[in-house]
Amino acid sequence: MSGSCCEVTDRAFTESEARAEARNYRRNGPPRQTSEILAFIQSLGLQNASLLDIGGGVGIIHHELLEDVANAATHVDASSAYLREARAESARRGHADRVTFVHGDFTDVAVDLAPADIVTLDRVVCCYPEHRKLLDAAARRSRRVLVMSYPRERWYVRLALGLLNAFQSLRRDPFRAFLHPTQEIDRVLGDNGMRRVFQRRFLVWEVAAYERAVP
Question: What domains are there in the chain, each with its CATH number?
Fold first, then answer.
């Protein structure tokens, strides 16, 4: 992608889209794959945990987990529009003082962030051409568990992403979506001392959880 990640992401993820996603969340709750991420984390029985939400969008994951699992969260996103919606919702829910908001590409700012008990990437890895760099940085910031969602390796998903990218090209929008092999995701996280402990597949999305291997 040409230009900085934040510039590209601000063009691709607009104010109107961020507002629409925030409204939908308030009316209908988390999307299905996000609910699965939340359910897995809540099943661990953690309390007073720290959360790092990478590409957190309108903040659904930390809005939910600050209710019962986490006592503090860091929300990183390259879209200023989505960060504004996340901040507004945090203020509305009364937990803005427990969230640190970071505007930027996670791979650029990761070195400045403290490790967290829980790291989440909901529909994020598909936005990165250099997914190994992203996953390496995310794994290094996870003390205990990393939970993520990404597109399934199915022909219809590959076709849909191809059409989306063709449309983006016609619009002269540099943002592209990527379908990375699940085995490659497992390998990169395994090289960082994490093992897959959970997997759930939906029509388009796949949810996977990785725990830090005990030495």
Answer: 5-205 (3.40.50.150)
